[in-house]
Amino acid sequence: MKYILKIQDKEAGSIRISGGKGASLSRLTQRFPEKVPDGFIITTEFFKYYIQPAVIHVQDDIKSAVAGLTLPADAVKLIQSAYEDLGENISVAVRSSATAEDLPDASFAGQQDTFLNVSGFQAVTKAVINCFASLYNQRAVSYRAKNGFDESEVQMAVVVQKMVVAKAAGVMFTADPITSDRFTTAIEAVEGLGEELVSGRKTPVTWTVKGGTAKKRNGAESCLTEAQVTALSSIGKKIEKEFGSPQDIEWCFDGQRFYIVQSRAITTLFPCPSSPDGFKRCFISVGHLQMMTDTMLPLGMSFWKLMSETVNITEIGGRPYMEITHNLNSPAGKALVRQKLSNSDELMNHAFHQVLERKDYIKSIPKGQKSEFAIPKYVIKCIIAGLKIYRKNNPAIIDGYNRRMEAIIQKTRNELAGRSGKAAIDYMINDMENLMKSLFDPDGFGPLMVTFFLTKPIDKAGKLLLGKEHISVDVSKSVKGNITSEMGFSVSRIADAARDYPEVLKYLETAGDKFRIEDLKRQQGGEDAAKAFEEFFSRYGMRCPGEIDIAKPRFAEAPGKILPTVLADVRLPKGHAERRLLQGQRESEEAGKALVLAAKKKWGARKARKLAKQLSFYRNFLGLRESPKYYWMKRYWEYKQAIIRESEKLVEKGRLRNVEDVFYLSLPELAGLFSGEWKPDYIKIDAMRADYERYASLTPPRLIFSDGEVVEGEYKRKVPNGALPGLAVSGGVAEGRARVILDIAEAGKIEKGDILVTKFTDPSWTPAFISVSGLVTEVGGMATHGAVITREYGLPAVVGVTDATKQIMDGDRIRVNGNLGYVEFLELRKEALQ
User: Residue 748 has what pLDDT?
Assistant: First the structure.
């Protein structure tokens, strides 16, 4: 047994002996001996022989028990001898190195302790003991539990290295951890020791290096020159090549030479797409186009692929992507992508155009089939029907459309009730065609298409006649028939029914996931609130955040999720939602009248009548904007209930472990399971569950190549210094406290006047809009859900703000400029957060 090894010993390259950090440094020393400070490793054998036996029976506070150990004389002598071999009374760094640390899939960065500038063998010995003790600190134990490590198998080594008298130090990521671009090296540097950066005592200067070009991201003065940054990046790429994966590297600089004091794999990069033939292939995020960038479980992805037959969907990091490689060298293919992106995501569109400028790459693309954004075959019928409906301009047709859609849902319910097992899945697969057809119902989608066409002439008239940009925003406030806007008012009715009853409010505040309408009825005054909840779940129970993934829990399945939104509304005055609705109607009517009057004065009566009809039709039918998706989700809810019913039968028979396992199966696998032809592979399912938990924390790029390069788009317009640019989708300016919310379950934090900051919104977020004064999202476009609803509610909104939920902190006071498209910081977290 070897208790201490020199850092350059080949034996020290084993994680089992030296822990993750020690093994990595040993390997670096063998490959780059001049780059790694000399030192030694106190191995896991030392830990097992001298440390573990002394605390094996300790049940509580193991860390204190280890820290209080007195090592036997022979152990102290080993440490003293190794330390003195480095030089006389020199300063060293003493670092923990656990076997569950600096691994390819779990870095454990910062979980155990490090001690710098330690001198004298007694101080070194004490630091070593404290490093061993840090294996048992609460954050390390919790991190290991979260990542599924067996405590009994985790061992600890300690690395002792000569200190470098650093003029500068920091960290280097050989792939950009923010964008996941493998072609960009990100370097953070501070003067002096790197500990100043890690502890947060100094703000680093950040550099990026791509294609040999170094650029500063922030910081006025740098402790490194551009040439030094480029040289350091080159060292990083050599280390990356040695380890075979992107690295998170700690470095220091003594004014003459760079030293490497740690290197571990970056575990938070978005996965690379695959390329069967090795050619560099280009992919765009479908999730950004659909405004749902969360992970989509395999069952949800399977449904999505069925609905996207004209688009070749590829799953990357639990998200849907589409390959556009062969569109890039096809005039028709480029036009298809350009048209789609220009209407959906400005940043992705700019990234796409950057790729188009790579002439040599585009010339090298081999022949292949381009991805199609095929126009659904039902659209022509919709256009014809829409024009006919425009001539009559009779909104009564909407009632017929809604009745027909409800009848289709009832038919789906009846059909599934009469099927079991594989037959139920077969029905869903075959029903996809009918689902797509219903989304493009001529009487529903037809007039909606006309409203889309009318937006441009209405805005043009507003500009010419009144000098006002985007007047369509004003005339679209509080339109009739928007079923998603009505969901917000439905929540307000619940709040109005609950507001005056203390027992009801107490129950709503404490029920959480155990909320039941039956329990609510038992509270004094709870009958009216219960009735309002029943009405809400009857109409909107099938909705939820990320609802295009059928596996996501619906409000009907997790009713407690809507409670924070109700409680946020309770803090507002009774009837506020209805007052906002009426105010929006008045403002819309006034805007329309002013526009028509101006047209009559300048253009004459005939043109004014034409414009008046356009405005009337626009308001009569724009509310249909949210209806197709509403009925789509109602259809999904019928599918999901049938899947759960059949899964519960298998659980009862012992053929399935639990219902949630089916969400990690594809539709063909589910059909095989229900028919008895296929048995669930729980090892595979559990591995997938772990993968998806990891994917959930990753940020999906808008455009990524199969070799890991990420191309980022930029907004080309100027914004005030320090402001965050985005896309203005709803006019006005709002100032208030930022409420950064990643889950609608946190909506209870919202107070009147707050500005909601989140990654994206879908219809399930609508109730939260009732309580806020503005909206900021990371994803979105002019026609997306958040844009439409904020315009109707008269809320300023800026979407597509890169990393908004990271750059804006909860509690910052911000200004949202929905006219020009940016977010300004007023004060940072001045107010204490509740």
Answer: 86
